[in-house]
Write a structure and sequence with these properties.
CATH architecture of the largest domain: Orthogonal Bundle
Strand order of the largest sheet: 5-4-7-6
Shape: globular
Number of domains: 2
Distance between the termini: 34 Å
Order of helices and strands: HEEHHHHHHEEHHEHEEEHE
Strand content: 5-15%
CATH class of the largest domain: Mainly Alpha
Length: 317
């Protein structure tokens, strides 16, 4: 399976890189900055080294990555305007880059195979390090911006929570007794870890086999060989973030991407005891967390939309 996946990655990387050698046109302009076809293809190649290519649509990936690159430029401009670019710990950045590269390297059978894959992708180890350094720095600055410009402006009132609870009561049930779970874990040290996990979740919802993906893409070495199976667990022993998700599910369904300790998890509920509905008081923390997440997502979208309105953006892809 791994060798087949590797060959598919190399084939797709070769296709992307070859097209970038033919033409290096401008695919987007953001104020006085441009994004070229080569830069876009390089980012697509970089993304493909981190995920399984099976079931992926390259054209859709290009559009999503181009939009992400535009957002990165807007965020970096905002960080510069707010004089936040010096807030990054360079030594910690270097350690995170080392960890990220080691995670990619671990996916290959040997150092030679790893370097060969990089060469096929038109990358060198130095260029890969440069890419990771840029991406991680942008990610850290994005977190600072979101904390400063988005999260600090989100407030939740009790009456909002009560209304949301009444409209979504069926989501707040007591996880009772035991559950049977499987998991996929994506380590948070990977660049774009949340995006990778979300892409996996969408593929599973689209019909991909959870256990097969766990075997090929989960970063949890203890469970991946068995398809991510955790077995039967007591709900009282689970992290609250997990129980708040699984109470909403029926057997066979998966959770959203859950951040636990900086890593990203997707859980498959295979079996569970019959749940009971929570009162508002019992569901208070869960309701607050859910509503906060929704409002953060809405506020972030509004913030990015405002940045886009203030900028000249032209896409020619």
């Amino acid at each position: 399976m791994k060798k087949i996946t590797l060959m598919l990655i190399l084939l797709m990387l070769f296709t992307v890189i070859t097209s970038s050698e033919v033409v290096n046109k401008i695919v987007a302009r953001v104020d006085d900055e441009i994004i070229t076809q080569y830069e876009l293809d390089e980012n697509v190649s970089f993304y493909l080294t981190q995920v399984s290519p099976q079931g992926l649509n390259i054209d859709e990936i290009k559009k999503e990555i181009l939009d992400s690159m535009i957002e990165d430029i807007l965020i970096m401009k905002e960080a510069e305007a707010l004089e936040l670019t010096d807030n990054i710990d360079e030594s910690l950045l270097g350690m995170n880059v080392d960890m990220a590269i080691d995670n990619i390297r671990a996916q290959y059978n040997s150092e030679e195979e790893f370097l060969r894959a990089l060469k096929m992708a038109g990358l060198t180890l130095g260029k890969l390090r440069e890419n990771y350094s840029k991406k991680i720095k942008e990610s850290e600055l994005s977190k600072i911006i979101i904390e400063k410009q988005v999260k600090s402006k989100v407030n939740i009132e009790k009456d909002e929570m009560e209304k949301y609870y009444e409209e979504n009561k069926e989501r707040y049930q007591k996880a009772k007794g035991k559950v049977k779970l499987s998991q996929i874990m994506i380590t948070g040290s990977k660049t774009g870890a949340f995006g990778i996990a979300e892409s996996i979740r969408k593929r599973i919802e689209g019909g991909a086999d959870f256990h097969e993906i766990a075997k090929s893409e989960s970063d949890d070495s203890f469970t991946k060989q068995d398809g991510g199976k955790l077995g039967i667990l007591n709900t009282d022993d689970l992290n609250k973030k997990i129980t708040s998700e699984i109470v909403k599910l029926n057997p066979g369904q998966i959770t959203s991407v859950i951040d636990i300790g900086g890593n990203y998890y997707i859980f498959l509920l295979e079996k569970k005891d019959k749940p009971e509905e929570m009162s508002f008081e019992e569901a208070f923390d869960y309701v607050k967390a859910d509503l906060y997440r929704i409002k953060i997502q809405e506020a972030y979208k509004e913030y990015i939309d405002e940045l886009k309105k203030k900028s000249y953006i032209k896409i020619t892809l």
